[in-house]
Amino acid sequence: MMSKVAHGIVSNMRSILPRLEASVKGGTSKRPELSEHFTLDEMVANEKLLQYDEGSKERTELETALLGVLNRVEHVPIVINGQEFQAKEDFQQVLPYDIQQPIAHYGHAHRVLIQMAIDKCVEEQVKWDKVRLSDRIDIWERAAMLIAGRYRYNIIAATMLGQGKTLRQAEMDVAELVDFMRINPVFLRELANYEPIKDIQNKCRNSMRLRGLSGFVAAISPFNFTGIAANLPYTPALMGNSVIWKPSDSAILSNYFVFKALREAGVPDGVVNFVPAEETTFASVVTQHPKLAGINFTGTSTVLKVLWQLVAQNINFYQNYPRLVGEGGGKNFHFVHSSAEPETAVACTIRSAFEYAGQKCSSCSMLYVPESLWQNHIREPLLEITASLVVRQDATYCDSFCSAVINRRAYDRIYMWLRYIDQSPSCQILVGGSCDKRRGYYVDPTVVLVKDLDNIICREELLAPILGVYVYPDHKLKETMDKVAQINHGLTGSVFAQDQNFIEEAYDAFRVNVGNLNVNDKSTGLMVGQQPFGAGHMTGTSDKLGTPHSLLRWTSPQVIKESYKTHRNIFYPYMQINDQEQGIAQSDMVSQDESSFGHFNSDGNKVV
């Protein structure tokens, strides 16, 4: 049996399609060349997190993997249709917390190579789309086993070192990747089991098959999540598409390890092509190609808008209407009510704001606290604990709460934010505010008291270890909530309260401005299948990764009707036209509905 969580999610798909009758059947259909049906009898659960206790097997395996990554500078090639290419210019991926230590070197594909990758994608898609769903699902399940097993520690090590994640954050990241590989095939089985309505028995047969999109899909992945980075190319691929994957330069080693695992699992060459490239060059080439079928993107809203504009400029040139799927984070918040438990609010806020140096797309960026709780219950523990957080020069130390930010570009951007905060009359730094780039890109966890909700700090996504705090008068609760709903459009938001009436009000107040709303829990830590994530407005297209919704974005279903009784009559009974006068012999006419043959009167006219 499926888990209740997964079964509830896939079952709910039926309610969004009008007059949909989804049936679960054993084995395959009578016409396997058209569609497949599956028996849904497997257990579905999220990947279990390993604990890495001192002396444990997993701790030893990880330490070995960390040494392996540190002691070798891995060459990461451009891979197109299984063939490796090298670029003329060589770049290095370095440790964010020790920029003198490289762990990988790679090159950027030039325009000709990107064009070659597109051509191979288009060529391979025709063949890949004909591969049976069950065979694709087998590949993804093998990939889940490989990543959960033999590849796990190398991917975790590359994520910790190359992306500056702590052990727990990297373990959660790889577990999420396993969930995508394991649970998406469950959703695909459920979608494949859908059958159109058959209300005329033995007269015709209706079926639907899930086709990939004609052309190619471009996947542009972020640095901050290895799991999401891999999900962007491999979800479209699961649905019958061929993909050109541009990984982030700052996550290239972990992404390459995932690419190798999927090739070993059986993904054919050319289905996913691994193409590191300069951002603007890649975007320019793929959006100018007539076979562009879709873009799967996670990053910033600014870049998502640029991609959308590039597609719009070329809309008359395409052979498809490209599918655009994008998530851009946003301004995530924690809103505390006077009935909240202060300890819970503080603990959840510190984790959400400062784990992974505030670089998650769901990181808490604003905290709203009532005056009745701020001074005596929240201010002191929030500031004391934040000041005590260990920001290690080495993310691999187990006492490290967070490490350096990802790269020089991020550091410079955050530095400018700190300068603005320091000079703004409506901002006051309560703790932190320092940064240092001599060895790595270090920024201290920072708490800023903001006195004006119209200040840009309250509105803009920072993607940094900076938490803005606004203290609102208790009697202005409703007014503050309305303002937050207006200015904070984010992926996630959280409310903290014990008052059930307030919680109900929060459901209504924050119905539109966030894609995920949490009650008495942090805004981060969403799990595949349990809390599918994605937001609307200008933060993204809200396609909810980790649900059947996201899979449907990458398929172009074809409905097939096969009639068993031929249709020859031309005229309808109400028209009162003598078919014999039209040169059609009555004996030759066969109707779908026998009642359409009326009786003729003495004048030769048909009586309705």
TrEMBL record:
Residues of the Aldehyde dehydrogenase domain: 89-558
Signal sequence range: none
Protein EC: 1.2.1.88
Reaction(s) catalysed by this chain's protein: L-glutamate 5-semialdehyde + NAD(+) + H2O = L-glutamate + NADH + 2 H(+)
Gene3D superfamilies in UniProt: Aldehyde Dehydrogenase, Chain A, domain 1, Aldehyde Dehydrogenase, Chain A, domain 2
One function term, GO molecular function aspect: L-glutamate gamma-semialdehyde dehydrogenase activity
Superkingdom of source: Eukaryota
SUPFAM superfamilies from the UniProt entry: ALDH-like (SSF53720)
Keywords, in A-Z order: NAD, Oxidoreductase, Proline metabolism
Sections of the chain in a coiled coil: none
InterPro entries per the UniProt record, alphabetical: Ald_DH/histidinol_DH (IPR016161), Ald_DH_C (IPR016163), Ald_DH_N (IPR016162), Aldehyde_DH_dom (IPR015590), Proline_metab_enzyme (IPR050485)
GO biological process: proline metabolic process
Chain positions covered by the region annotation Disordered: 585-608
Pathway the protein acts in: Amino-acid degradation; L-proline degradation into L-glutamate; L-glutamate from L-proline: step 2/2
Annotated transmembrane regions: none
Recorded family membership: Belongs to the aldehyde dehydrogenase family.
Protein's recorded name: Delta-1-pyrroline-5-carboxylate dehydrogenase, mitochondrial
Provenance organism: Drosophila melanogaster (Fruit fly)
Lineage, top ranks: Eukaryota, Metazoa, Ecdysozoa, Arthropoda, Hexapoda
Gene name of the encoded protein: CG33092-RG
